[in-house]
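Reviewers of the previous submission asked for a worked example of the structure-prediction workflow described in the proposal, so we include one complete record here. The input consisted solely of the amino acid sequence. No template or homolog information was supplied to the procedure at any stage.
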Amino acid sequence: MAWELTIAPLVVAILIASLASLLAMEIWLSGRVMPGVYAWDVDLGGLTRDQAVERLQTSFHFPRDRHPALRYHDQRWSVDPAILGVRLDAPATVDAALEVGHTGGLRQCLGEQLYTLFSGRLVTPVLVSDPNGGGLYLSGIAGQVNRPLRNASLSLNDDLSVNITPGQAGREMDEEGTRKALLQRIAEMAGGDVALVVRESQPLLTDLSAAQAQVQRILRAPVVLTAPGFDPWTLDQRTLAGWLILRPTGEASGSATLSVSLDPGQTTRLAEQIAAQVAREPSNAQFRWSDASGGLVAVVDSVAGQTLDVTKAVTLIEQAATSDRRSVPLPLNIIRPQLATEDAPSLGITELIGEGITHFAGSSAARIQNITVGAAQFDGLLIPPGETFSFNQYLGEVTAEQGYAEGIIIWGNTTRADVGGGLCQVSSTAFRAAFWAGLPITERHAHAFRVSYYEPPKGLDATIYSPSVDLKWVNDTGHTILVHTYVDTGNDTLTFRYYGTNPGRTVQIDGPYESNPVPHDPVVYRDDPTLPKGEKKQIEWAKDGLDVTVYRIIKVNGEEVGRDTFFSRYLPWQAVYLVGTKQ
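From that input alone, the workflow returned the following structure tokens.
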């Protein structure tokens, strides 16, 4: 019993000493690599992290017997990892070594530490690589391995005979795939051969005998294009050879051939060039009223137009190039004119339905010139039923290039010189013809002042100024209206005549009715240094202001069917004289 009491304290003392030793060892190993841990062949046991990193950086060398080699068939290239930018990541490797015996619970850590002390532990070195490393080296190998894919092809000799060049299988090294395979082997430090990653491709085009025969068929003779009235257009064999297009077909099956055709861009351009040469705009017939025959006569016959059907022409050219029929009549579309000579009876122009006359006595030569040029724009016009006649539309541009001279026009509350002075004589005459024809007048503007050329009667003038001031009427007769103009310089008259079919209407005038007279102002004298002293020249003539109303009464079969009001307000206008002051 006494002996047992003596042994117990001894056991306790041994246990305490063991635990103290174990605790001291754990404290010492904290932050150190377990003894027995190696990174490849470098002993890291017992070292702190910094000591282990330093030892690895100075002592680790990638073993030469673990260098991988690239192999492709009978070719072999040894690869130094450094070429690929591979280097040791010493801190990461040490971090992996520090985990040995330091992770998990106490029991697990103690077991792993005892095992490492007696058996040792190898830690695989952590290697990193430059993402762009080895590019030049691998490109050099690719240059030795790569071979372009070459399909079989056709070629023309100078004499236009056709040759066939056989195809060739292609191969291309996958540099990125090869690099990844190398890095995987280097990371494993296993050495040995790594298969070169190569993509191989087989030609699609192999048998071109059918295409060869098709090319020979196209080039055997010229293609000739014909059109009535034109010299033929010839496509010789060299032109056809330049237009050949060879396209592979049947690629989905893995074995293609060539389809042979002419370049549609070239054939279309040729067809468009020919189209421009053969194109002809249709020309309408022009008619005049003949008092002798009491009807229309054609003074200019109509001419049918024509265009080339470009799409159809391209198809015919391609068909001729691949057939025995080498001549192609070009497809022409005939365009009927809007108004053909034979259409005269259908126009319904059978009689005079309205006439307007004005006088231009006393007009200057420039004013008479403008009246003549302006009236000519309307002579022979055909206004279809339902159409609105616009004076400005048919008058067109008023410029010196069109033959107009500079004359006096009314502008605001005075007059001034401008190109086209006198055209209101033309519009006023056209207005009067529409007035007496009973046509609906949808736009008419009176002059600001009374003009002696248009009186009597008062209130039947119409001013125009493009584009804002216009004269418009509508053809409501149900038949075409023919417009004729006549300038009589002997009697100083301008006449507009409208021919068509009178729908049974008669026109009467009620008025003019005058009101609100306004006397003109006294005469004005203005000095003019360009006139000799004492000479006078009148440039404005006095007119009293006046309101004028005219009523147009339209009857059909004696019954009134319409009454139109035309109101004009004329401002007073004083006489103006220029007085010379030139010494």
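The chain has a mean pLDDT of 86. We consider this example representative of the routine output the project will generate in years two and three.
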